[in-house]
Amino acid sequence: xxxxxxxxxxxxxxxxxxxxxxxxxxxxxxxxxxxxxxxxxxxxxxxxxxxxxxxxxxxxxxxxxxxxxxxxxxxxxxxxxxxxxxxxxxxxxxxxxxxxxxxxxxxxxxxxxxxxxxxxxxxxxxxxxxxxxxxxxxxxxxxxxxxxxxxxxxxxxxxxxxxxxxxxxxxxxxxxxxxxxxxxxxxxxxxxxxxxxxxxxxxxxxxxxxxxxxxxxxxxxxxxxxxxxxxxxxxxxxxxxxxxxxxxxxxxxxxxxxxxxxxxxxxxxxxxxxxxxxxxxxxxxxxxxxxxxxxxxxxxxxxxxxxxxxxxxxxxxxxxxxxxxxxxxxxxxxxxxxxxxxxxxxxxxxxxxxxxxxxxxxxxxxxxxxxxxxxxxxxxxxxxxxxxxxxxxxxxxxxxxxxxxxxxxxxxxxxxxxxxxxxxxxxxxxxxxxxxxxxxxxxxxxxxxxxxxxxxxxxxxxxxxxxxxxxxxxxxxxxxxxxxxxxxxxxxxxxxxxxxxxxxxxxxxxxxxxxxxxxxxxxxxxxxxxxxxxxxxxxxxxxxxxxxxxxxx
Length: 553
Known about the structure:
Layout: H1 8-11, H2 30-40, H3 53-69, E1 72-73, E2 77-78, E3 81-82, E4 85-95, E5 100-105, E6 108-112, E7 118-121, E8 129-139, E9 145-146, E10 151-152, E11 163-167, H4 191-200, E12 205-210, H5 212-215, H6 219-226, E13 230-233, E14 245-250, H7 251-260, H8 265-271, E15 280-307, E16 312-322, E17 327-328, E18 338-339, H9 342-361, E19 367-374, H10 382-389, E20 398-404, E21 415-418, H11 425-434, E22 440-441, H12 458-461, E23 467-472, H13 480-494, H14 510-527, H15 542-547
Parallel strand pairs: 8-11, 11-12, 12-14, 16-19, 16-20, 20-23, 21-22
Antiparallel strand pairs: 1-15, 2-3, 4-13, 4-15, 5-6, 5-15, 7-14, 8-15, 9-10, 15-19, 17-18, 21-23
Helix pairs in contact: 2-9, 3-9, 9-14, 11-14
C-alpha cells in the first residue's frame, strides 16, 4: 500500500488516535526514526552481520546516536568504568565452497543442490570436516520427546550413524487440539528444539521438512537463513546440543523421496499426530554429504546505553531490540546479495535510540533504564541469551523487559499485539496503558508460528524476568484490516529475510512513533514505581521468578 506523504504536523505525535492525550507521551520524532532506519539498512552497513565490517559500522553509529541522545554507557566494566558494549564470544561456522550432497534410493543416486531441495547448515558440533557416506534415513515424526505429555516420537530407536527426518511445528498444528496447546506452537515445535533433541537422541543428523504454513515462512527464508554463516554461543560440549548435520528439505522433495522408498508421506504425517507413532526407516534410502567447515571463535557485541535511576539505581527496566541482520548472502533474482534488514530490525534499533532520547530529556526516573541492542538474534537469539546468562545488571532486580522487533513503519493502527500471549502482569499493564490512546490489544494472531520463542524477550522470560515483545497493529487507521493484512502478507512473502527488506521513502513512521509513546509510558511508570510485575500463577516462568524473590526485598 502506498502511504501518502504526511505533513510536519502529522509527523509529530499529535498523530495519536486521541490527540487530546498526546501530551501524556514524549515527543517522538518520526523523521529521526526514518533517518536512523535509512542509515542502518543502507548497503554501506552490509546487512549488519555479526563480526563483520557491518557490525563495526553499526556499533559506531548506534553509540554515537545514544551518546548524542544523552545516554551513558552501560556495558562491560573496564578499569571501573562502563563501556558502550558487552563482548559476546561466539562460535562462527561456515561451509567452505559448495557442499557435495546426494541421496540414494535403492542404489540410484540423486545429487542435491544447496538452497534448492535442501538447505544444510554449517556444522556447529565442533566438526570441521563432514564426511557422511550412505547414512540411513529415519522418519521420526515431529521429533518430540515430552515425558510430561507422555509423548515420545523416538520410541528408543537407535539413531547412531543415521539421519532423522522430522516435521516442523508440533502435532497439534493442523488439528488445532491435542496435547501441545492446540493451534499455538509450544517450544517443541521450534526448529531449535528439534536439533537439540536430535543431538540428545544420538542422531548423526537431522533434516526438517519445510512446509510454509506450519513454519510460518516460505522456503526463501529457510534458504537465506540456513545456507550462510552460522553462529552459536561458545559451549563446553557443542555436540551435546548439535548433531553433526543440521538442515531442512523441501516438502515436495520429501514427498518424492518417501514415495521412492515405498512410503506415503501424508499417511505417515497423519500417524505422527498420535502418541502411538513409531519411527519408520526409509528402506533403501541413504544420504551422503561431504564438505569442510571453517570454525573459529569470534567476538561480537551487544550495545548498551543507560540512564541511572535517581533513587534505586540497582533496579532496572530494560528496553531491547536486536541490531543484527543476515549480512551478505545468496543473491536474489536481481542479483542483490545484501540483506539490508530495514524492518527487521533497523526499526527496533531506531526505536531504542529514540526512546533513549525521550528518557534523557525527562527528569531521572527512580529506577535505572537500560537500552540493550543485542547481537546475533538472527542466529538464534544469541546476544540476548548471552546477556541473560551473564547479565550486566542482576536479573533478580530486573523489573521487566520491553522488546521491539520488526515494527511497522507505516501509519498508525487502532490496535497492537505481542509475540505470544503468556499471562503476566506486565502484559496487563501494557493493555491498560494502551487505552489512553484508544488502542485495542489483540492476542498473537498466529500463535502457531511460535513467535514467543523467536524474539529476544524469550531468554529473559525463561529465566523468570517478566518480558514481552511488542508487535505493531494490523487494523490501520488508513485502510483498516484489509490494508494491514496486505502489508503484512507482502512483507512475509517478498521481504522477510530477503534483500528486499529495504528502506522506502514513502514510509511515514507515524504509527511507530505513536507506539513508542505507549512503550515509553509503560517503562516510565514501572521505573517510577516500586512494583514488581510477575507471571500468572499458572505460567511455566513463575517458578523461576519466585525463586529470585529474595533479591527484591
